[in-house]
Amino acid sequence: MDPVRNPFAPGAGQRPPELAGRDRELDAFDVLLERVSRGRPERSLVLTGLRGVGKTVLLGELRSRALQRGWATGKVEARAGADLRRPLSAALHRAVRDLAVRHRAPDRVEETLGVLKAFALKANPEGTGMRDRWQPGIDVPATRGRADSGDIEIDLVELFTAVAELAADVGTGLVLLLDEMQDLGPDDVSALCASCHELSQSGAPLVVVGAGLPHVPSVLAASKSYSERLFRYLRIDRLDAVAADRAVRTPIEREGATIDDDALLALHTASGGYPYFVQAYGKAAWDAAPGDSVTAADVAIAAPEAELELAVGFFGSRLERATPAEREYLHAMAELAGADDEAVPTAQVALHLGRKASSLSPARDSLLKKGLVYATERGFVAFTVPHFGRFLAGRDHSRDDQR
Questions:
Q1: In the chain, what is the straight-line distance between the N-terminal and C-terminal CA atoms, in Å?
Q2: 3-state secondary structure of 336
Q3: DSSP letters of 235-275?
Q4: Bridge partners of residue 73, in order along the sequence
Q5: Distance (Å, rounded) from C-alpha 213 to C-alpha 184?
C-alpha cells in the first residue's frame, strides 16, 4: 500500500490516528472539569503506567478537551535534577496570557503577572549577579511579599491561588498538566501536594493532571502522608483486544483499505496491546502489504522490520544510558522475569549473579534514578519498559557487558 497514506504514527507523545480504549480516563476528566466549574470539591488526577502506554498522548488529549471548554492550560515536563520553578513559570505565563484576553481589568492581570514574576525570579540562585540572572520575560514589576519567599512550598500555594483567582474572574479555570512526575525533586513534590491540598479546600478552579511511571503514588506518599486523598490515580495499561483492533482497523478503513481478522490477531499478539507497539507494528504491516488489504502473512513479513525499529529507537536508546554494571543487572532481571516481565526480588537478582546484594545496590539505585526500573514493592523491581526483558533476551549478553 502507498506509504505516503500510511495512517500509523509511532512517535513519542504523538497522537495515534484512533485514540482507542481511553474512554474511562476521558470521562473522568470531563467530570472533574464540570464539578470544579460548579464549585464542587474534586481531586486532581494522576495517570500512571509503563513507558509506551500513551500517558503523554492522553495528557495532550485532555489539554485539547480543556481548551475546548474555554479553560486555560499549561504543560510542564519534569526533568530529573532540574528545579520546577522555571518551566512552571513559563507554562503558567502562557496560561495567564490566555486568560488576559478575556479579562476586562488589566490591573488584575498585571497583579497576577507580578506574582508570577516574583515566583519565577526565585529560580535564580542566591548571589547571582544582575548580568547572569535569568529573566522570565514578564513585562511587569515583580510583586513583593507574594510567592517570593524562596520556599517553594509557600510560594507555589500563593502562585496557584493568584492564578486560580484570575481564572475565576472570567468564569473559567486552569489545568496544569505535569508529565514525568517521578522525576520531580523532593521539595517540588512536597510543594505540589501542599498546593493541591490548598486548592481542594478552597474550591479554586485550578486542577493538576499529572502523569508518570507506576511508582508515582509512592513518590507522592513519601512526601505527604495525605497524598492518596489529594489525587485520583488512574492506571493506564495496555489495550484489550477490542480496543487494539479498533486502533488498527479504524485508521486502515478510513484510507479505503481493509485488514482481516487473522491479521488483527497477529498484530495484537506481537504488540501485546501496548499502544506504542500497536502503532509500530501497524505501520510496518501497512508498508508490507502489496494490495489494499492487510493479511496475517503481511504482519509476519513486517514484524522483523517493526522489531528492528523498536530495538533501535525504543529499547536501544534506553539501554545505551546504562553502564556495564547496570546492563548486567538488567540482563539478570530479564532472565528471572520471564516472558511477562514480572517483578523480581532484588535478593534473587543478587543470588542469580552470585553477588552480595549490597554490592549491587549502586547499580540498582542508578537504574531507578534513570527510570529504567521501578520498585513495585519493597525488595522487588520491574522494568518500566514493556517487553524490555524480551528485547534483552535476544541480545548478545557479553557484547552489552563490554560497552
A1: 40
A2: helix
A3: E-----HHHHHHHHHHHHHHTT-EE-HHHHHHHHHHHTT-H
A4: 175
A5: 12
223 or 50: which leads in pLDDT: 50
State whether residue 72 is helix, strand or coil.
strand
**Residue 143, all three cell numbers:** 510583586
DSSP state of 312: I
C-alpha span between 138 and 123 (Å, rounded) = 14
Distances (CA, A) of 147 to 155, 195, 260, 381: 4, 12, 59, 39
Contact criterion met (CB below 8 Å) for 343 and 376: yes
Could you read off the pLDDT of 293-351 as tens digits, one per residue?
999 999 999 999 999 999 998 999 999 999 999 999 999 999 999 878 899 999 999 99
The C-alpha R_g of the chain, in whole angstroms, comes to 24
In this structure, are residues 30 and 65 in contact, taking their beta carbons and an 8 Å threshold? yes
CA distance 311 to 306: 9
> CA dihedral defined by 219, 223, 226, 227, rounded to 10 degrees?
-40
- Residue 401: the pLDDT is 53
> Binning pLDDT at 50, 70 and 90, where does residue 253 land?
very high
Q: What angle do CA 142, 147, 148 make, to 5 degrees?
A: 65
Alpha-carbon distance of 342 to 381, in angstroms, equals: 9
Give all domains of the chain, ordered by start, each with its CATH number.
23-235 (3.40.50.300), 245-318 (1.10.8), 321-401 (1.10.10.10)
CA 103 vs CA 74, 200, 396: distances in Å:
18, 24, 62
